[in-house]
Amino acid sequence: MSAGNTAIPAGPRPDRTSAARWGLYAFLAISALFFLTPLYVMIVTSLKSMDEIRAGYILQFPAEFTVAAWTKAWNSACTGLNCNGIKVGFFNSVRILVPSVIVSIAVGSLTGYALSLWRVRGADVIFGALMVVAFIPYQVFIYPLVRIFSMAGINQTLFGIVVIHTIFGLPTMTLLFRNYFASLPPDLFKAARVDGAGFFQIFWSIMLPMAVPMIVVAMILQVTGIWNDFILGLVFAGRENLPMTVQLNNIVNSTQGERAYNVDMAATMLTALVPLAVYFGSGRWFVRGIAAGAVKG
Amino acid sequence: MIARSIRVVVPAALALAAGMGSAGAQQRAEVIHWWTSGGESAAVRVFAEQFTKAGGQWVDTAIAGGANARTAAINRTVGGDPPTAMQFNTGKQFDDLVEANLLADVDALARQQNWKAILPEAISAAVTRNGKYFAVPVNIHGQNWIWYNKAVLEKVGASEPKNWDEAIAILEKIKAAGLIPLAFSGQKNWERDLFNTVMLDKAGPAVWNGIYAQRSEAAARSADFRAAVDTFAKLRSYVDAGSPGRNWNDATALVIQGKAGMQVMGDWAKGEFAAAGKTAGKDFGCTLFGSKGGGYVMGGDVFAFPKQKDAAKSGAQLTLAKVMLEPDTQILFAQKKGSIPVRTDLDVSSLDICAQRASKMIQDKSQQVASVQMLAPPAMNGAIEDLVSQFWNGNAMSHDQFVDKMVAILKGSY
Amino acid sequence: MFARFGRFRSRTAAWVALLPALAIILVAHAGSTGWTIWMSFTSSRMLPNSNFVGLRQYVTLFNNDRWLVSIHNLAIFGTLMVVGALAVGLLLAIAIDQRVRAENVLRSVFLYPFSMSFVVTGLAWQWMLNPTHGIQKLVRGWGFADFQFDWIVRQDTVIFTLVIAGVWHAAGLVMAIMLAGLRGIDDEIWKAARVDGIPTWRTYASIVIPMLGASFATAGILLSASVVRLYDLAVAMTNGGPGLASEVPAKFVMDHLFERGNLGLATAAATSMLITVVSIAAPLFYARARARAQETRR
After folding, report:
1. Do A41 and A98 belong to one domain?
2. Quick check: A37 and C128 CB within 8 A?
3. Which residues of chain A have a CB within 8 Å of the CB of C218?
4. Which of B275, B64, C109 is nearest to A242 (CA)?
């Protein structure tokens, strides 16, 4: 502990008073419990039979474990005429996710950088306009965008849905990066300018590496938003590219059909696996981000 | 404009002349619908298989949730890439598409199959715009069924009620026995359906049509309507504390398990009973209330056909429409879906007893009641839904206020 | 001369970099917003038409009980949710920043709710909060027969259940943003505070937290935007009920846009939301821009 050989956790050195330490861990444990309870409910429900669920003891441990709901959700649940489960559309979602995340973060970070460190005329107006858009329920934009996209000939295409996610991601992405870059010590930027570095050079070799923690946050936002998106994918992606959430919705959201909650829960867990994996995997990058932060000193 | 309609009509006429299906190359039809659950999938498979038999190829685009499916289909139609066929509820949901000249009519087929004679009048009217048929109705869902657990009714010494007054007496007994009298799912649309079920029994088809079709203030201020409001309010004391927000199938489960006595729900509830291995007439009963004549509220589904650039697709549309109304298809579909056939000229002895009862009932014209979706635009139904929900939850609104607010909606621009 | 030319080139580069954003703002955002405002003055039902009806939709809107209740609900929900998520997120970030064990696991535990769509997590919440088979039943089963936790079925308390689930969903993201900010804070500050003998909590309260201004702004705007656009959560947990007690404006817009085929009324509602946001945001932005301009002038 006392070695201090690492830049990781930048917070204060731990208090040695163990009472405070206990309090800290108690707080974290209780919080963790609160955060995990809904997940617990979902997991135990997905492992129960429908009879047991109907009996209504939702917080109880399953009397009899069954993974039938999971296999059914993945392989054989009906989502219309086809009964091939939720796995249909998985690769479509990946194909939408990867380019959309990359493009939207690229455009957003570049815009945020240009708006924060460069004194572009009207920067405040552009930023203000973006922030206002962030507050409009985006569903009202669907109809005009369908018209614009079909005029441009990119309606119902993979390219079209990537553009859509970039359009709707731009306000938040710009916000994240603009505020982050604006909070960096200004000397860093000034020194680079004095050295004669240009716009893109500074962005690529100085700002972007420093923004790793924000890129991680941006990824969390975009991966989640795009992966869980349903209505935009449904309207803009085209029949061949329908995302996995369309299948998820088909399983859990039928109005008049009979419902199987264990399959619903399993299907949701399965759908959430990709964002979850990205989150767990990005922990390492958080740590790298801190190392980048340490350069500032 | 004229040129376009000729392009649609000519191939249609050709397809008819050639006896359909066999008309040349294979007919591909992409169908957008919202039937996604297990039982619904089985039903839609009937259509797909019959269409395949007729030489077509069914391309399935299933999207759960009526609003979701319609949003996707409408936006694709507007964006110039329409599906071959799209589902709507029987009613006014496709009015705007007809007005915008985006739908192809199926009038020639309707005359050939003599729809006017075989469909109930209200259904026929619901798919007709400007004197032409614009959609093919495929089934009828009864919206005002009362389901009850036979064992529970036996236990309290009651038999099948015939109207809401009798039903309330039974609910009182069930309450005394310590069970949940009325299994209820407190979501807006079911609150509205419960109100409508009470209103049809108490006020009859005249007030029903007065409110929903004629937007008549007199109907809303009538004594019968007021009686319906009073009865509806009474029902508050027969639902349990957990009812707000509950899903309809969880309410059905309470009836199935004998924790509750009865439930008001459309005939799709049969699917839940069947999934739990219960038989109609043995484990559970079904009944309808219509004290003032007119007892069966007919909802259902239709398919409409967006205009196509490609003539082959127009041919596929006609084949599909024809197949959907054929007697075999109708019976098979109704068996799987839990609905009844939309044609009144079929032998329904292979359906369950509730469906048989309904089919018999709609033979009598006076028993046919058009659903609110057929009579009023979605905006007005939505506003009434909000009002009923506001009234049902909490005692803040007086019965007079309820009537006043109803009148305001009828006169408003919804 | 040469340096100047370089500067000129960089300015141009900045404009080039902004081109995609400008295109999106002008074509997609401004175009769609303008269209939305225009539609709100027409009698459009399911499909748009150009039948001008003046302010009729707005009159209908502001005579509509549900719309008025929705605004009221949003005000309560928004305040509690933003404050709650900021507080919980900050506390979690600070706690995790104390060189605790299992940091990775804890961070993921707090963050995972954000990865799941409300379509079904809403159902899990609904069950847990339902008095007949959720937490109330569990605690009563432990022997506390009078225990009451029926907020979700009561009109006066249902909005708080949305806040609980909303904080659960968003606090992890706030934590991540705050953590990114905390980790950017110079170690020297901690050393200095330690040398001066300032207690840890005071260092946080008077030095560190004020330095997190940008993180607060980011998280605050993200949360506010998600509050104003709140839709999924209300649909999945309560569907606006009981009665109108958990109806919110974005759900009003959505329901009228799709289910109820009333484009005119839906866009009037969206336009009203837009005007509200602009009239709150514009003075703030103006004040900030002025303050910044004065700062640079000095």
Report:
1. no
2. yes
3. 175-176, 179-180
4. B64
Find all residues with CB under 8 Å of C52, minimum gap 6, and list them: C41, C42
Domain count of chain A?
2
Instruction: Give the pairing type, strands B260-265 and B145-149.
Output: antiparallel
Q: Are A228 and A106 in contact (CB under 8 A)?
A: no
pLDDT tops 50 at residue C135:
yes
Residue B301 φ/ψ, nearest 5 degrees: -130, 150
**What's the pTM value of the predicted model, to 2 decimals?**
0.90
Same domain, A104 and A21: no
CATH for C293: 1.10.3720.10
Half-sphere exposure of C16 (CA within 13 A, CB side): 9
Q: Are residues A37 and A151 in the same domain?
A: no
- DSSP, collapsed to helix, strand or coil, labels residue B62 as strand
Please state the ipTM of this predicted complex.
Answer: 0.87
- What's the confidence (pLDDT) of residue B31? 96
The per-type count for chain C, helices as H runs and strands as E runs, is 15, 0
Note whether B93 contacts C262, CB cutoff 8 Å.
Answer: no
In tens, the pLDDT along A164-197 reads: 999 999 999 999 999 889 888 888 888 988 888 8
Predicted confidence (pLDDT) per residue in C164-206, tens digit: 999 999 999 999 999 888 877 777 888 888 898 888 888 898 8
Query: What is the pairing mode between strands B145-149 and B284-287?
Result: antiparallel
Beta bridge partners of A190: none
Q: Both A134 and A277 in a single domain?
A: yes
For A148-272, strand residue ranges (E) read none
> Which residues 6+ apart lie within 8 Å of A153 measured at CB?
none
Q: Are residues B224 and B198 part of one domain? A: yes
Residues B284 and B353 both lie in one domain: no
Q: Which helix (H) or strand (E) holds C294?
A: helix C263-297
Token output for C266 = 């839906």
Do A147 and B79 touch, CB atoms closer than 8 A? yes
What type of residue sits at position A67?
V
Cβ contacts of C5 within 8 Å, gap of 6 or more: none
The tokens of B355 are what?
A: 């469906």
State how far the alpha carbon of B73 is from the alpha carbons of A137, A266, B61, B362, in Å.
Answer: 21, 29, 10, 32
Give the separation between CA B67 and CA B73, rounded to whole angstroms: 10
Instruction: Give the pLDDT confidence of B20-69 residue by residue, as tens digits.
Output: 444 445 789 999 999 988 888 889 999 999 999 999 999 999 999 889 99
Inter-chain residue contact C150 with B241, CB threshold 8 Å: yes
Q: Are residues A61 and A94 both part of a single domain?
A: no
CATH number of the CATH domain containing A253: 1.10.3720.10
Asked if A217 and C3 come within 8 Å (Cβ–Cβ), the reply is no
Give A-chain residues touching B38 at CB under 8 angstroms. 77-78, 83, 257-258, 260
**Host domain of residue A288:** 87-294
**How far is it, in rounded angstroms, from Cα B308 to Cα B102?**
9
Determine whether the interchain pair C243/B392 forms a contact, defined as Cβ–Cβ distance below 8 Å: yes
For an interface test with A, give the residue of C7, C218, C274 to mutate (most A CBs within 10 A): C218
List, in sequence order, every beta strand (DSSP E) within A22-110.
Answer: none
DSSP 8-state assignment for residue C244: T
Domain count, chain B: 2
Which of B148, B119, B156, B159 shows the shortest CA–CA distance to B135? B119
* Residues A278, A286 contacting (CB under 8 angstroms): no
Q: From CA A75, how far away is CA A87, in angstroms rounded?
A: 7
Question: Is the same domain home to B95 and B197?
Answer: no
User: Is pLDDT at A71 greater than 90 in this prediction?
Assistant: yes
CA–CA–CA angle B197, B199, B202 (5° rounding): 110
Residues B271 and B385 in one domain: yes
d(CA A78, CA A85): 6
Q: Write out pLDDT tens, residues B306-327.
A: 999 888 888 999 999 999 999 9
Q: Is C281 part of any domain?
A: yes
